[in-house]
Specification:
ABC transmembrane type-1 domain-containing protein; transmembrane; mainly alpha; 125 residues
Length: 125
Amino acid sequence: MNLHSKGWNSNDTVRGSPRASHATPRTMSGNFSPAGRIGNAVTELKIQAAFRGGVAVVIVVVVVVVIVVVVVVVVAAVAVVVVAVVVVVVVLVVVVVVVVVVVVVVVAFCEIKKLQYLPGRTQVQ
């Protein structure tokens, strides 16, 4: 008898056969017992619940991944803006410092030149 060639509910599912422990319980006449039908219904409900639970888990995982991606993109955008602002501020500070130094040097040079040409001063050649 080739058990693999027959269906799950074939009539060779009897006590002592290798598949008896996995088979649906039957009455003596070979019909399905109410307990077997109830067991099948419960098993089917468990499978459906597990599938629904699996779908729920997939949905939750997708939502969490989307939220994480959005947060990472927003944080990256904010970081880029902050870096740009810092660069602009540093450039402005450098420009202001250079302008102040140039103005101080020019004013000092002019003052030194004025002092050289004051009346009563001797010119140093």
